[in-house]
């Protein structure tokens, strides 16, 4: 991956994180900075998965949003349990 691809994945990851948060129903307990960080991770993972299946931009973007939603959902569940026990 070239440096331009990494920079674009970081920028798109911030947007993906926000979209992933919107896709998950209900109230999230994650701070916004953690959601955006998870979006960056999801952009790399979803881009890799989507690129392996079908290398079309819209398809990869949809996979990235779905991965972000899944990661935000799982992280929110773990974060809210930790917040309640502390």
From TrEMBL:
It comes from the Bacteria. It is a multi-pass membrane protein. The chain crosses the membrane at residues 6-24, 31-50, 56-75. Its main location: membrane. Belongs to the UPF0410 family. It is found in: Cell membrane. This is Membrane protein YeaQ/YmgE (Transglycosylase-associated protein family). Keywords: Cell membrane, Membrane, Transmembrane, Transmembrane helix. InterPro entries: Transgly_assoc (IPR007341). Signal peptide: none annotated.
């Amino acid at each position: 991956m070239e440096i331009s691809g990494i920079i674009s994945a970081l920028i798109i990851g911030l947007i993906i994180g926000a979209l992933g948060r919107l896709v998950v129903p209900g109230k999230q307990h994650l701070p916004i900075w953690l959601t955006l960080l998870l979006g960056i991770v999801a952009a790399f993972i979803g881009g890799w998965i989507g690129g392996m299946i079908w290398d079309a931009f819209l398809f990869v973007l949809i996979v990235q949003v779905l991965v972000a939603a899944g990661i935000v959902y799982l992280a929110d569940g773990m974060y809210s349990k930790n917040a309640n026990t502390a």
